[in-house]
Design brief:
Blueprint (H helix, E strand, L loop, with lengths): L1 H11 L11 E2 L13 E4 L2 E13 L2 E13 L5 E5 L5 E6 L2 E7 L1 H10 L9 E5 L5 E6 L3 E3 H6 L5 H28 L12 E4 L5 E3 L4 E4 L6 H16 L5 H6 L4 H4 L27 H8 L12 H16 L2
Parallel strand pairs: 1-2
Antiparallel strand pairs: 2-3, 3-4, 4-5, 5-9, 6-7, 7-13, 8-9, 10-11, 11-12
């Protein structure tokens, strides 16, 4: 098999330097076995595997062996291949119990739905010879929105007045993108801040990773709405506030002493939602949006439309219109 790979690379990548020539995989079921210098064949298309992708969260690196960074040999384009991987797990948010699971074919449907819509990652899907669905994704050149925000080197007050209005306006556009999915009876499924990227050059905000799905019978789109709220909380505070974070920021103890259990997130119990207690210049109307995601809230947003209505009104207030 190595000779076949060597012949492919000589044809399509004559300058490729490697001491290893792997196998050609037409069945991607055992994705853990597919590694550097192997080739995945989908129909008549060939993809050279360069490495496994990894997720970096909370200072840890978590390899994603079912996600391969590679190169499409016929075109020379770098691409990401997401192989079929299934998992299921429960999640509790306030009074809601949610069953979450991974669905490759759901992601394939969304890729088809959003083709040409640059608010989302782009790609296509194909099946390997045994029917595993493989998504072939274009690579977005850019950075996660939360990293872009974190790297704005100003104090919070300057950030809020000089940067946040433009960020909020573009974030509203990202929420409208999620509404587009809901209007077509689809869910993103894993709305969180590392899944919203800022593209270099254009500055466009773009959603990635659509393969999670969930069952929440009380509100079919509720988990997406909670995810949008969590991102907004980060954008308002320019950080996720835990008690340790607040101590590191040297927030006055007199302020910290005012925090109570109702000021924390209903989703992540140690995260402060009531940002106005930390920064008093946060408009009350904006803070009220954040408090819909607090453990003290008795009313949650039921749709992205409701969240958008309040955010648009707050944006006008912040801009002084």
């Amino acid at each position: 098999m190595s000779s076949e790979v060597r012949d492919l690379l000589r044809k399509y990548l004559p300058d490729y330097k490697s001491t290893r020539f792997g196998k050609i995989y037409t069945d991607t079921t055992e994705f853990m076995n597919i590694d550097h210098s192997d080739v995945i064949k989908l129909g008549n298309q060939h993809f050279l595997v360069l490495k496994n992708e990894a997720e970096r969260r909370f200072g840890l690196v978590d390899p994603k062996y079912w996600v391969k960074r590679g190169k499409h040999l016929e075109s020379g384009q770098p691409q990401i291949l997401k192989l079929a991987f299934y998992e299921k797990f429960p999640m509790n948010i306030g009074p809601f119990k949610i069953e979450c699971y991974r669905s490759p074919r759901k992601e394939a449907r969304i890729l088809e739905l959003v083709k040409g819509d640059m608010r989302f990652m782009q790609g296509c899907s194909n099946n390997d010879e045994v029917g595993n669905n493989v998504r072939v994704l274009d690579i977005i050149r850019g950075k996660r929105l939360d990293i872009v925000v974190y790297n704005i080197s100003v104090d919070h007050k300057t950030y809020f007045y000089e940067y946040f209005p433009d960020i909020l306006e573009k974030y509203i556009g990202s929420c409208e993108a999620i509404k587009f999915l809901h209007d077509h009876d689809e869910k993103h499924g894993d709305v969180r801040r590392d899944h919203l990227w800022v593209e270099s050059g254009t500055g466009d905000y773009r959603w990635i990773d659509f393969d999670y799905a969930f069952e929440l019978y009380e509100n079919p789109f509720g988990l997406d709405v909670f995810g949008l709220g969590s991102i907004l909380i980060y954008l308002v505070g320019k950080a996720n506030f835990t008690m340790q974070t607040l101590l590191d920021l040297k927030i006055e103890h007199s302020i910290l002493e005012t925090l109570n259990s109702g000021d924390y997130s209903v989703v992540i119990g140690n995260r402060v939602v009531n940002v106005r207690k930390i920064y008093s210049y946060i408009p009350e109307s904006l803070n009220n949006i954040l408090m819909h995601f607090s453990s003290s809230s008795t009313v949650y947003y039921e749709s992205v439309d409701e969240l958008l209505f309040d955010m648009r009104r707050c944006l006008k207030e912040i801009r002084g219109l």
